[in-house]
């Protein structure tokens, strides 16, 4: 089928998001072949319609009023692997399910993405925010990103360096926002390499509960267990997982500023150790979840039909029939209280679609 035959009008976006929120897309196309992607882009350019690229919808807040342009739903499928020396280079179409790929890598003993188990969404979105968890980020394994330039309507390829990855950030999310549709991603995974445990919480869990010489499968299962305990794995039976995962990014601030915050807290008689993590020189990364709780929000805090997850302070959830407006109001309340208490503005990790901002 060609693009025109597949093009639909007034499609409800709610079911395409993990938050279960969002109004109608004026136009919607399900792209199961790259040709549909190319035709969709050409059509949107010609008709002067806005275009939004939708993967698994697991990092989105879609407006209640929906999206007035074309939603391009990526559903292309293909996996190819090439062995070279002690590595395997796996190239996947952007519509492949990320977690299925992680499971395949673990099964084949391909090391490098096992800590990224249980993350929802599709392969094509992983370079966008440099998906990461439990001490691994996709920037450590991506070697090439193949994309379609929406402006020049041509194929392009990016090396790892050109993707300009950093914490939850990339070239595609910053300078080149909305410029490219990612078509294929290549990951380089190691053969016969034992797992590396960099993340203290995971390391402790594995060493205490599993083994001092864990396999990739041990790591995969441990990550899934830890994530489930925080409702960070999508589960239809678990309303705490009706979220976008972490709603805010962990803030990276200057060390000087952290010292001022510590002084202020001491004056207020608060003697807590602020959890801090290494970042680039002169900077320090703080835990957004810790800041939220210390700003006075308890896990489970509810506002209208949305809430903070009762398992994780960083996840905002849709309890039942919540709206994007309610999510925005809750997010703003959190941002304002954290700002008031710590002089830090939490930036959303979630992407807002259809809002006039
Ligand atoms: C329960 C839960 C746990 C999570 N845990 C984590 C975690 O541990 N670590 C983490 O990093 N994230 C986490 N996330 C967030 C989310 O899963 C990731 O950001 C994921 O990569 C989003 O993939 P997606 O396919 O759902 O993208 P979508 O939500 O559909 O889109 C996200 C962004 O990527 C763009 N995009 C998607 N596909 C393409 C493409 N082919 N070309 C160009 N642009 C594209 C979209 O336009 C949008 O801007 C979690 C989410 C949930 C719900």
Q: What would the keywords be for this entry?
A:
357 residues; Uridine Diphospho-n-acetylenolpyruvylglucosamine Reductase, domain 2; single chain; alpha+beta; Uridine Diphospho-n-acetylenolpyruvylglucosamine Reductase, domain 1; binds flavin-adenine dinucleotide; 27% helix; 20 strands; six-stranded antiparallel β-sheet; Uridine Diphospho-n-acetylenolpyruvylglucosamine Reductase, domain 3; 9 helices; four-stranded mixed β-sheet
Largest sheet: 6 strands, antiparallel
Provide a count of the helices.
Answer: 9
Head-to-tail CA distance between termini: 36 Å
Number of domains: 3
CATH hierarchy: architecture of the largest domain = 2-Layer Sandwich
Range of helix content? 25-40%
Number of strands: 20
Oligomer: single chain
**Ligand species:** flavin-adenine dinucleotide
What would CATH call the class of the largest domain? Alpha Beta
């Amino acid at each position: 089928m060609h693009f025109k035959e597949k093009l639909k009008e007034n499609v409800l976006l709610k079911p395409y998001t993990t938050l279960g929120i969002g109004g109608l897309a004026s136009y919607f196309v399900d792209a199961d072949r790259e040709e549909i992607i190319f035709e969709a882009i050409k059509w949107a350019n010609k008709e002067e319609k806005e275009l939004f690229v939708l993967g698994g919808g697991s990092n989105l807040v879609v407006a209640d009023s929906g999206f007035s342009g074309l939603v391009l739903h990526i559903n292309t499928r293909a996996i190819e692997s090439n062995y070279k020396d002690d590595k395997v280079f796996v190239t996947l179409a952007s519509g492949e399910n990320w977690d299925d790929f992680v499971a395949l890598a673990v099964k084949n003993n391909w090391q490098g993405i096992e800590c990224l188990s249980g993350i929802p969404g599709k392969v094509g979105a992983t370079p966008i925010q440099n998906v990461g968890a439990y001490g691994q980020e996709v920037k450590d394994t991506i070697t090439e990103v193949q994309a379609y330039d929406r402006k020049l309507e041509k194929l392009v390829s990016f090396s790892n360096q050109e993707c300009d990855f950093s914490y939850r950030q990339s070239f595609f999310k910053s300078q080149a926002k909305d410029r490219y549709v990612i078509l294929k991603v290549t990951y380089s995974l190691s053969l016969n390499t034992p797992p590396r445990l960099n993340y203290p919480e995971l390391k402790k869990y594995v060493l205490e509960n599993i083994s001092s010489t864990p396999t990739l499968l041990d790591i995969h299962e441990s990550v899934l267990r830890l994530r489930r305990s925080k409702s960070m794995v999508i589960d239809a039976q678990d309303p705490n997982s009706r979220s976008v995962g972490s709603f805010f990014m962990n803030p990276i601030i200057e060390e000087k500023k952290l010292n001022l915050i510590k002084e202020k807290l001491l004056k207020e008689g608060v003697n807590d150790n602020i959890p801090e993590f290494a970042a680039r020189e002169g900077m320090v990364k703080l835990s957004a979840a810790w800041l939220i709780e210390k700003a006075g929000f308890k896990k489970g805090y509810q506002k209208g039909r949305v809430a903070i997850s009762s398992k994780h302070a960083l996840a905002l959830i849709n309890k039942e029939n919540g709206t994007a407006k309610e999510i925005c109001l809750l997010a703003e309340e959190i941002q304002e209280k954290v700002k008031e208490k710590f002089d830090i503005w939490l930036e959303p990790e979630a992407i807002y679609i259809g809002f006039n901002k």
